[in-house]
Structure formats: structure tokens, C-alpha cells
Amino acid sequence: MGGKVWNKGKLRASVLTNKITQTINAVLGKKFPERRVFLRSDTETKFLRLTPSTQLLGWIGSIAIFSWAIIATAILLMDNIGSGNVREQVKREQIAYETRLNSLSVERDIRAKEAEMAHNRFSIALAQVSEMQSALLTSEDRRAELEKGIDVIQSTLRRTMLERDKSRAKNTELSLSLNGTPSEVQTAKAQADDAIATVDFLTAALDSTASERDQIALDAVETFDYARELEFQAQLTAERNDRIFTQLEDAMTISVKPLDKMFRAAGLSSKSLIEKVRRTHSGQGGPLAPLSFSTMGTKPDADTMRANRILNDLDRLNLYRIAAQKAPFALPLKGAFRFTSPFGYRWGRLHAGTDFAAAHGTPIYSTADGVVYSAGWGNGYGKLVKIQHAFGIETRYAHMSKILVKAGQRVSRGQQIGAMGNTGRSTGTHLHYEVRVGGKPVNPMTYIKAARDVF
Fold first, then answer.
1. What pLDDT is stored for residue 128 in this prediction?
2. What is the CATH number for 399?
3. Nearest residue to 216 (alpha-carbon basis) of 140, 132, 128
4. Which residue in 252, 270, 322, 426 is a FRET match for 68, CA 20 to 30 A apart?
5. Which residues, other chains included, contact 241 with Cβ-Cβ below 8 Å and sequence gap of 6+?
6. Can you give the pLDDT at residue 419?
């Protein structure tokens, strides 16, 4: 009994399905009438019945395939255009970075020389002020001695004048006296003449001393004026030095921070890089030599401290420039190209580099300074060049058509090392570019994007 009920239910569902199908075909029959495709052979003839619903599905599928083809083509075109724009932008930014480094280097030398000249002028002015102060103190001492001498002379003169007056009075008395002897008269007259001569000598000496005192006073006033002028010039020099130091400090901040950001984005420690570069580039001298300190045990002045800080920052910027030359921040290609395969796992295996596709024979360049330690055939890589850079970094360039360097050769960033090809395990002309740190592969785009974001 249960089986019959189930069969009846199945029959009803089948009938309902057929009715729905017929209804759909009837509605679609206006646009997609039923068609038959005949297949004939030598012995028999068969035909395929194409219902309106089947034709609709085929039409939808065709539209979907056509739409997918259009979208895929548009994506490829946009990728090609985007790659070209990125490449031109990277090239412009690299030129701007090099121009900026050159201008900063020239300005650094100019500002360092100006700072050194300003410091020398300030030292000379201080020395002159010190000499003038010493001369002024000497003049004051001499003036005090002259004033003391004038006081002594004046007291002596007053005493002598009193004696002269007494002598004159006595001489008058003797002259009027008739009882006096000639010898007494002559003696009194001689004393009076001596007193007069002494007074005349003291008067002349007093006049000369007063003139010399007045001249010393005038010299002291001129010395004070010159000292004030020197102090004013020293103040102007200090203000100018402050403006120069401020401009240099701002320039150092603007230049060093982006480089710090670039090295951090590439996963490199800027402190470790600076130490490694300094060990291999330890020579000093010229305009970047630090200003010397006093050997008298005194502390250096504020300008000397600021100048030394700026010189240290300039040295740090120069070390950053050297580190940037030795790390693979550049692109291995300069012409037109497009990215065809990124770094990462594919089909369960690690694709240890980035693929760049371009025309056969496109020049390939070293992305940093280094030494070629392998140039030849590599299993699966085809013609392969391996370059060892500083900081434990290695780059590889595979599938070349031609190799232009040899093992043991030292290369610079931007130097051509080969040409693009299709050697080894490759499906077409392209460059397989790898970056390895400590022997382990890392994403090359990390370095390329880090440099692009900064420059």
C-alpha cells in the first residue's frame, strides 16, 4: 500500500515537472522556436532536438564566454598600461632621487664651508675683543697712574707757589731794606729765581700730563666704541650661523627619515647597515671632519656642538647613500616590460622570484653593487648570473640569452650583465629575478616597492 502511494506521488511530481517544462518552452518558443539538428551517416539519420530552454542556456553560455573574453582582454590591456606607467614613474623617481642626492651633496659642502668660515670669523672677532679689552684695562691703569702723578705734581706745585710767594715777599723786603748786606740780597734773589724756575718746569710738566691724559681718555672712548661694534658683529654672525644651522638640520631631517623608512620597509635594520658600511668606509677628512675641541679642558661652544651634529648627520646620509647603492632597490630592466608571475607558491611549490616579460635580447642590469660569484648554466634556470651584495644579500638573473659578465667580476648598480632570453625551464622569453637574504628567498618586490614609495 505504501509503495503504491509513493509511486503515485512520484507520478504526480513527474507530471507537474513536465507541465512546468512545457509552460517554459511555450513562453520561450516565441523567441527561441524549437529546432532540430540532423546528423546523417551512410547507414542512418539521427537528429537532435533543441528545445527553447536548451537554446536559452546555450545563448546565455555564449554571452558569458564572450563577456569573459572582453573582461580578460581589458584586464591584460590595463595591466600592460599600468606596468608601463609604473616603470616610467620608477625611472623618473630614480632620476629625481639621484639629482636630489647630488644637490644635497653640493649644498652640504657649501654649508659646511660657510659654517667653518663663520666659526673662524667669530673666533677672530672674539680674539680682537679680548685684545681690545686688555688694551682698555692697560689704558685705565695708565690713566690712574697719570691722575695720581698729576695729583702729586699739583700738590708740589701748590707748595712751590707758596714758597715762591714767600720768596718774592722776602725779596721785596730785602730790596726795601737798606740795612741789608749785598750777600743776603743776592741769596734771596737766587732763591726766588730757583722757585720761579721750578714753578715754570712744574707748570710745563702739568700741561704735558694733562694733554696726555686727555688723549688717553679719547683712546679709551674709541676703544669702547670699537668693542661695541665688534660685539654687534659677533651677534650678527651668531644669528646668521643659527639660520644656517637650522636650514641644515631641517634638510637632514627631511633627507634621513625617508631613507630610514625605505630600509625598514625592506626589512633591513638601518643601524646594522650603518655599522657595516662604516666598517668598510672608515676614512675621514676634508669638509666632513669634525670641528676640533679645546685642549684647555673647557667645553665646546653651542655652535661647535651644532656643527658637529650636522656633520655627523651628513656622514650618516652619505653612509645611507652607500647602503642604498649596495642593496637591490633598483629594477633589473629599464625598457618596456610587464610582470607575468609574482613571488609565492604555485601548485604547491615556491616560485622564489618575480618574472618580467619583454622582447628577446632586452638588456638586464644589476640592481646593486656587488661581485659576480657564478655566471653560467644553472639547472632549470638556463643561463644564470648570481651576484653577491653587501649585508648578506644575493640576486639571481635566470633564463638569459646572453651573459656579459664572469665569475669574480665586480659590478655596479645599473651595469648591464646580460640579455633576456628563453633558456632553461621556461615557457617564453622572460627574466626570472630572485633576491635572497642569508640564502633564503624573499619577495623582490619588497625592495622595489620600498624604493618606489620613498623616491
1. 75
2. 2.70.70.10
3. 140
4. 426
5. 115, 118, 119, 122, 303
6. 96
β-pairing verdict for 431-437 and 440-442: antiparallel
Domain count, the chain: 3
pTM of the entire predicted model: 0.45
For residue 313, the enclosing domain spans 110-292+302-326
Are residues 271 and 361 part of one domain? no
Q: How far apart are CA 248 and CA 313, in angstroms?
A: 10
Are 421 and 306 found together in one domain? Answer: no
Q: Which of 313, 327, 315 is nearest to 282 (CA)?
A: 315
Residue 178: its pLDDT value, please? Answer: 46
Helix axes 2-28, 52-176, angle to 10 degrees: 70
pLDDT of residue 295: 45
- The whole-angstrom separation of Cα 313 and Cα 125 is 28
User: Which grid coordinates are listed for 404?
Assistant: 656579459
Question: What's 400-430 look like in SS3?
Answer: EEEECCCCCCEECCCCEEEEEECCCCCCCCE
Helix (H) or strand (E) holding 192: helix 182-265
What are the cell numbers at 391?
649585508
What pLDDT score does 187 carry? 64
For 15, the enclosing helix (H) or strand (E) is: helix 2-28
Query: What's the CA gap between 448 and 186, in Å, rounded?
Result: 120
Q: What is Dmax (Cα atoms) for the chain? A: 200
| Contact by Cβ (8 Å): 50, 37 | yes
Element of type H or E holding 2: helix 2-28
67 inside domain: no
Both 286 and 382 in one domain: the answer is: no
Q: Which residues of the chain have pLDDT under 50?
A: 178, 180, 285-296
Residue 151 phi, psi dihedral angles, 5° rounding: -60, -45
Neighbours of 15 (CB within 10 A): 10
Does one domain contain both 423 and 392? yes
Number of other CB atoms surrounding residue 303 within 10 Å: 19
